[in-house]
Amino acid sequence: MPGGITESGEPYSPFVGLVYMFNLIVGTGALTMPKAFATAGWVVSISLISFLGFMSYMTTTFVIEAMASTNAQLRWKRREQEEVHDSDSTSEYSDDDVVVRGRSEPETKPILSVQRSGGHVDHFDIVERVEMGQMASMFFNKVGVNMFYICIIVYLYGDLAIYAAAVPISLMEMACGNHSCSAGSVKYNDTDPCWGSVTRKDAYRVFLSVFTLCLGPFTFFNAQKTKYLQILTSLMRWIAFSMMIILALIRIGKDSGKGRPAVANLSGVPNLFGVCVYSFMCQHSLPSLVTPISDKKRVGTLVLVDYVLILGFYVLLSFTAIFCFDSALLHDMYTLNFTDNCDVLDIPFLRYFLGLFPVFTISTNFPIIAVTLRNNWKTLFHRDGGTYPWVRWLPPDLLFPS
């Protein structure tokens, strides 16, 4: 999710910041983690996810340090400008004029602020939200800034590609699968029929087209006032995750688990690597997340606790999955395992809720990421005067909708 839940910049406690970061990191990646665990083996999976989680934590601390340095640099520049302005204003008058002006004109600077200015000021305190693009423009040259935006754009394209695949897959499985309790767990092929002569692959393409036509036009608008929408999706997310973990634990506790996971399988490492990297991505949203925290003395500890909790959550979700379900029958989207197996969940409403859960949550985030991608493209090709050098012969709104 490209940004924190709060949009107004109102301060909140470190505990709330911990919750926001947890909700930000844990998302769609958690739904694909169990399949990757089963493919690579549980020992290899724990080792790799722990290493990548540590590297992501280190990168997060680097970004926070860059935010602090940026705030200090902006504060020093502002102070230098004020000193130059004060020196210019006082040089225009003689000493007598200054005395007369000081007696006749009202004070323009509060006494308390003057007294406080002599005290200790932490120039590295993160009080001003500085986005990643602004930091790149301050510390990098032109080539570095362009490379930064290219990296962000590639990540956002990958994010949108995952979302655009997850929603049609979930809809296709719900529309084409046999969800009667007598069916049991069945492994389908893409060429199996869905509706008469329409195969499952064709149904996927139909749902993909519908998804694109329905959510694509939102790219032409701006994503604002999404606080309550994100709160709603976060609530649905934790209801679904809690249900899946509890249901899997109940089945394992009854000694009815079908999973016999492998210890190690190096052929599954590439898939696991991609899932783990995506599952710890949060650095692009740190300015919106860290800046409103009221007490930043223990931000490093807060981030470390968050990563430890997230790592524990991923391991708990994946372990309950690989020991509850047969590894060969695990779906790419973990929620789909609860829609065609009544031994785990036999309540139709809850089965459809879990099966359609990715559709609801991803559909609300897709427009936000699409708008973010559009804005990064506009910034990358923007020049002074509002022109785009090599696309001047095309209307800008055609390439960069607004």
Automatic annotation (TrEMBL):
<feature type="domain" description="Amino acid transporter transmembrane">
    <location>
        <begin position="17"/>
        <end position="68"/>
    </location>
</feature>
<feature type="transmembrane region" description="Helical">
    <location>
        <begin position="235"/>
        <end position="252"/>
    </location>
</feature>
<dbReference type="Pfam" id="PF01490">
    <property type="entry name" value="Aa_trans"/>
</dbReference>
<dbReference type="GO" id="GO:0016020">
    <property type="term" value="C:membrane"/>
</dbReference>
<comment type="similarity">
    <text>Belongs to the TMEM104 family.</text>
</comment>
<keyword id="KW-1133">Transmembrane helix</keyword>
<feature type="compositionally biased region" description="Basic and acidic residues">
    <location>
        <begin position="79"/>
        <end position="88"/>
    </location>
</feature>
<dbReference type="InterPro" id="IPR013057">
    <property type="entry name" value="AA_transpt_TM"/>
</dbReference>
<feature type="region of interest" description="Disordered">
    <location>
        <begin position="79"/>
        <end position="100"/>
    </location>
</feature>
<protein>
    <recommendedName>
        <fullName>Amino acid transporter transmembrane domain-containing protein</fullName>
    </recommendedName>
</protein>
<feature type="transmembrane region" description="Helical">
    <location>
        <begin position="349"/>
        <end position="373"/>
    </location>
</feature>
<keyword id="KW-0812">Transmembrane</keyword>
<feature type="transmembrane region" description="Helical">
    <location>
        <begin position="139"/>
        <end position="158"/>
    </location>
</feature>
<feature type="transmembrane region" description="Helical">
    <location>
        <begin position="39"/>
        <end position="68"/>
    </location>
</feature>
<feature type="transmembrane region" description="Helical">
    <location>
        <begin position="302"/>
        <end position="329"/>
    </location>
</feature>
<keyword id="KW-0325">Glycoprotein</keyword>
<feature type="transmembrane region" description="Helical">
    <location>
        <begin position="203"/>
        <end position="223"/>
    </location>
</feature>
<feature type="transmembrane region" description="Helical">
    <location>
        <begin position="12"/>
        <end position="33"/>
    </location>
</feature>
<keyword id="KW-0472">Membrane</keyword>
